[in-house]
Amino acid sequence: MSLKLLGKKCIVTGGSRGIGLEIAKRFSSEGASLLLLSTNNDHLAAALPQLSTVAPDQSHSVTQFDVSCGRNFTDSDLPEKWPHKINDVDIVVNSAGISQAALLMKMKPENIDHLLRVNLLGSILMSQSFVRSMVRKRSGNIINLTSVLGSRGVTGTSVYAASKAGIVGFTKSLAVELGSKNVRVNCLSLGLANTDMGRAVAPAVKDYFMANTPLGELVSPEDAAEAALFLATNSKITGTVLTVDGGFIS
């Protein structure tokens, strides 16, 4: 059986838990070398052994990095144990994100700022960190995770929704900028997922999702990972939003 990502080097933000980790696990099972980014060293240490090694040239590592820091990710941020550089990276998965469970009138400005820095600015700056080398190689793939809440209003999610709608606009425009250089940029848009973050949403929000999801189930991390793999391996898809939501926005 051929490995779909054999020899590819991939960085996953928010890679220590949830959807990000599941994507990393799936990509590693197809031969990719993974670097997981997160702010939590304990979660990273627990995530690393879960990655598969199915090819002799694979190498996996983890490093602490806060995507809300307001700067690019550089070679100096790479861990010594990962034998690759920024120029070697083929795939970037921007999965880091935080949620919102509050009415706008009750949110503090600093919390709004932090959410936008993590969910939107973090993805923009991480993408910027790698596009120059991808353009030089005329090869690269960026997958930005977004949410169906960016296109359908739900009470108590206004700033989160704005950040996720922003990801879609960013992705589509960047795909146009980079398409002639053979660099692909896509969105994976998810419904309410069966992760720690998904299970922590307010009961009213979960009830709303379930009442309006035809398939009547939360999105599994495994389903999200399969969709991400599809985006990573189909060479003719760019500027698209692949939705995995059980029919929520239908």
UniProtKB/TrEMBL annotation:
SUPFAM superfamilies tied to this protein: NAD(P)-binding Rossmann-fold domains (SSF51735)
One GO BP: fatty acid biosynthetic process
GO molecular function, one term: oxidoreductase activity, acting on the CH-OH group of donors, NAD or NADP as acceptor
Pfam families: adh_short_C2
Keywords per UniProt: NADP, Oxidoreductase
InterPro entries on file: NAD(P)-bd_dom_sf (IPR036291), Sc_DH/Rdtase_CS (IPR020904), SDR_fam (IPR002347)
Residue spans crossing the bilayer: none
Family: Belongs to the short-chain dehydrogenases/reductases (SDR) family.
Official protein name in the record: Sps19p
UniProt source species: Sugiyamaella lignohabitans
Lineage: Eukaryota, Fungi, Dikarya, Ascomycota, Saccharomycotina
Gene name in the database record: SPS19
